[in-house]
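Box S1 | Example of a co-folding query
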Amino acid sequence: MNPYVEEVYDDVLKRDPNEPEFHQAVHEVLESISLAVDKHPEYQETRLLERLVEPERQIIFRVPWVDDNGEVQVNRGYRVEFNSALGPYKGGLRFHKSVNRNIIKFLGFEQIFKNALTAQGIGGGKGGSDFDPHGRSDTEIMRFCQQFMTELYRHIGEQTDVPAGDIGVGGREIGYLFGMYKRLTNRFESGVLTGKSLNWGGSLVRTEATGYGTVLFAQSMLDVKGETLDGKRVVVSGSGNVSIYAVEKAQQLGADVVTVSDSSGWVLDEDGIDVELLKQIKEVERGRIKEYADRKKGVKFFSGSRPWEVPCDIALPCATQNELNDKDAKRLIENGVKAVSEGANMPSTPDAVDMFQEADVLFGPGKAANAGGVATSALEMEQNASRASWSFEKAEGRLTEIMKNIHDDAYATSEEYGRPGDYVLGANITGFERVATAMLEQGIV
Ligand code: NDP
Ligand code: 2IT
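Box S1 (continued) | Returned holo structure for (2Z)-2-iminopentanedioic acid
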C-alpha cells in the first residue's frame, strides 16, 4: 500500500478503535485506491484522505416512545452526514437491533462511492436506529417513526440531506416519517425523502430497483464472458425488499432461483421460488420465511444457517453485512459458482472476496451492484423537482442505463489499472476519483 494511505488507515484505527465494520469498509476502499493515490501528490498535500474518512457531521439522538402496553421505550437515533462533495447527503435509514455508530459509519462511507458511481450528483450519508421492528404493531411503528422524526427533521431537507429506506425501513415507515416531517415544517417537501408511496410523490420502480439492479449488474458481468442468465441456477439470501426483486428479475431473465432466507433460516425450492407467494408472506403478512415452506409442497426449510451450501451458478447475497465468509466462498467455488453480485452492503467478508477473485469468479461489489436503489431514489428526486411522474417503462429504462454505465465505468477503470475484471478496484477508484476531484475543487472544507 502507498505509505500515505497506510498512515491514514492507522490513524482511523487509533481514533475510533471499536468500529470493526467501519475499519473493514475503509480498508477495502483505501487498499484499492492506493494505485490512484500514487499518481496524485496533491491528495496528501490537502489531507484529502483524512477528510474523506471523517464524516462531515454525526448526529446521535435519544428516541423515547411509548409502546402498546403503555411502557416507555428509549432507543438511539443516528444520522451520519459523511460527504457532500457531489451533492446533498443521500442514503437510507436502517432500523435493526444491531445498529450502532460503527454500522452507520460503515454504511455511510460505502454510500459516498456508490452514489458517486451513479453519476447523479448525490453525496453520501446514512442513518437509523437500534429500534427492532420485529413483532411491533403498526401503531408502534408509527409512533416510533414520528418520535424519530421530531429530531431528524432539523438536519434534513431536499437540498441538504435526503434519507430513504434500508433494513427495517420500507414504504410504510417512509410514509410515517414524511407525515411527521410535513407537520413539523409545514412544508410538503417531496424531495426530502425517497421511497415514498406512488400516491404522493414516489417513483415507479423504486421498490424493485435495488434487486433488479443487482441482477442487471450480474448480467453485465456475464455478458463480458459471452454468457447470459438464461438457465442459470441462482441462490439468493434474505427475503426483504432487495431479495424479492432480485428473485423477480432473475426469473424474468430466465434463471432458476432456488433459495431465499431470513434471520431464522432458509428455504430450498427446487421448483423455483414462487415470487407471488413470497410477496404475500413477506410484504403483505410480514411473516417468517418458514411459512413459505409450510405453504408450498416440496419446499425444505433449514433453520439457523445460510443457503451458500446449495450448488449454484450465481450467488446473490441480499441480506446483511458479512453474511458470506471464507468457508462459504470455498463451498460456492467448489460447487462451481460463476458470478457473485452483492445486493446487500458488504455481505462478503474480505477473505471471501479474495477467494472469489483468485478463483476467477465474477465478483460485483455492493457499491456497484446494489447502486440501483439509490440511483432510482435520485430519479425520484428528479421527478419531484419537475413535478413529473414517469411510466414504469421510462423509470426502468433509466435504471437499466445507469446500471450498465456503472458496470462499464468500473470495468474500464479496472482495465486502465491493469486488472481487467477486478470490479472492486474498478468501482472504488471510479467513485473515489469523482469525489476527490470535487473535494479538491471545493477547497479545504
Ligand atoms: P429488508 O429489511 O427489506 O430485508 C432484510 C432481509 O435480510 C430480511 O430477510 C432479514 O431477515 C434479513 N436480515 C437482516 N439482518 C439479518 C441478519 N443479521 N442475519 C440474517 N438475516 C438478516 O432490507 P433490504 O432488503 O432493504 O436490505 C437488505 C440489504 O440490502 C442490506 O444490506 C441493505 O443495506 C442493502 N441495500 C438495500 C437497499 C434498498 O434500497 N432497500 C439499497 C442498497 C442496498 P429478518 O426479517 O429475519 O430480520
Ligand atoms: O444502501 C443503499 O443504497 C440504500 N439503502 C438506498 C439509499 C437511498 O437513498 O435510496
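The first strand starts at residue 57 and ends at 66. The mean pLDDT is 98.
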